[in-house]
Design brief:
Layout (H helix, E strand, L loop, with lengths): L2 E5 L5 H16 L5 H13 L5 E7 L2 E13 L4 E11 L8 H16 L3 E4 L6 H9 L16
Parallel strand pairs: 4-5
Antiparallel strand pairs: 1-2, 2-3, 3-4
Length: 150
């Protein structure tokens, strides 16, 4: 079994949008609007300052992705890289796909001089929390708040 991690290309946008729709439903039972998520994914490719996607391929078939965005920290004078929109196709789960994507992102972040990696996870998603802890990530002491504007 061959596992490759690569930077996503604009041709991957439709698959990434579908995976985001599937992930939102699986984790939050939230129905995303296909038009909006499609525009949102394409916007990352159109404006690199927003971040980038990685795609995992298992035996040459795309089976997962994640998005990296940036948060400037004046306290640390550097960027945190946020891992978002993680999805692994059901048939590829528990085969090291996320672990490989995470290792790839971590190496990229270290090489770029980032000050840390962050992500958020649903409170009830204990499997994901265990995965992240198993990779050496620690739960932060911050709560996340949101003020929707749309």
């Amino acid at each position: 079994m061959s596992l490759q991690i690569r930077r996503a290309a604009p041709e991957d946008a439709d698959a990434i949008a579908r995976w985001n729709i599937a992930m939102a439903w699986e984790t939050e039972q939230k129905q995303l609007d296909a038009e909006t998520i499609g525009r949102g994914v394409r916007a990352v490719f159109e404006e690199p300052r927003r971040g980038f996607y990685l795609v995992a391929e298992l035996d040459g078939i795309a089976v997962g992705c994640l998005l990296v965005t940036y948060e400037w920290s004046d306290w640390r004078c550097g960027d945190f890289w946020w891992v978002q929109s993680v999805y692994v196709a059901p048939e590829a789960r528990r085969s090291g796909v996320f672990r490989a994507m995470y290792a790839h992102v971590k190496a990229m972040a270290e090489g770029a001089g980032a000050v840390g990696l962050r992500l958020y996870v649903e409170l009830e998603n204990e499997r994901a929390q265990a995965t992240y802890a198993g990779l050496g990530m620690e739960r932060c002491h911050y709560y996340m708040y949101e003020a929707p504007l749309l």
